[in-house]
Amino acid sequence: MDFRSIFSRSKSTREKEIIHLLVNSFGVRPKKISYYCQAFCHKSAARNIHNDRKLSNERLEFLGDAIIDSVVAEYLYRAHPSAEEGEMTKMKSRIVSRINLNKTAVEMGIHLLIETDLQATNSRESISGNAFEAVVGAIYLDRGYAKAKISVLNVLKRYANLGRIQNMENDFKSRLYEEAHRLGAKVYFKTIPVTSEKGAHQFLSKVIWNNDELGNGKGSSKKRAEQKASEQALIKISEIAD
Given pLDDT bands bounded at 50, 70 and 90, which one contains residue 4? Predict the structure, then answer.
């Protein structure tokens, strides 16, 4: 993944690139560009390049995350009038998952505009998705909720294939428990923190199926590691069944 340095282009060029992305991908023409410049400033750049932690996009990310959650919840409520609460919750979790937001952000080219000091961060997997949320927070502050809502829905439909994601089953851990119940098997996880070769903090998870290791996976969070391990285990279960 290509994260560019703040030093690679001038401030005016950078602002033009940000405006271009906002207009073409979000359908937003900014009024206050400073909001959006901050949305693309990772905490490592705020701390080590700008020497000003207040320039970090973390607060905007917090705001944008809440807005996206609200927009998607309303969309699902109106789009699926017969769906129960649990079903809508699962659909929403798939749409706003970190994996999906990261992928959407990269598809849009957000990762090319993020200011970051890569030597000081080990969370590269989530940088793009976090910046996407921060941009949504910036749109809300700059143009209001109505515009942010339209932008989020347009982006998810255009880049993330919203209709497909609603029906996509990627909760591998839940599916694994369902298979265990169906087959009368005992299943549990062994998940421990580990350190990668590059010194990044990760988690290693192993699926134990009837006392045998059936799958394993690594991830930047315990949840992600267990999902990867569950996916691998489900593949092996399907192979055994065949």
Answer: very low
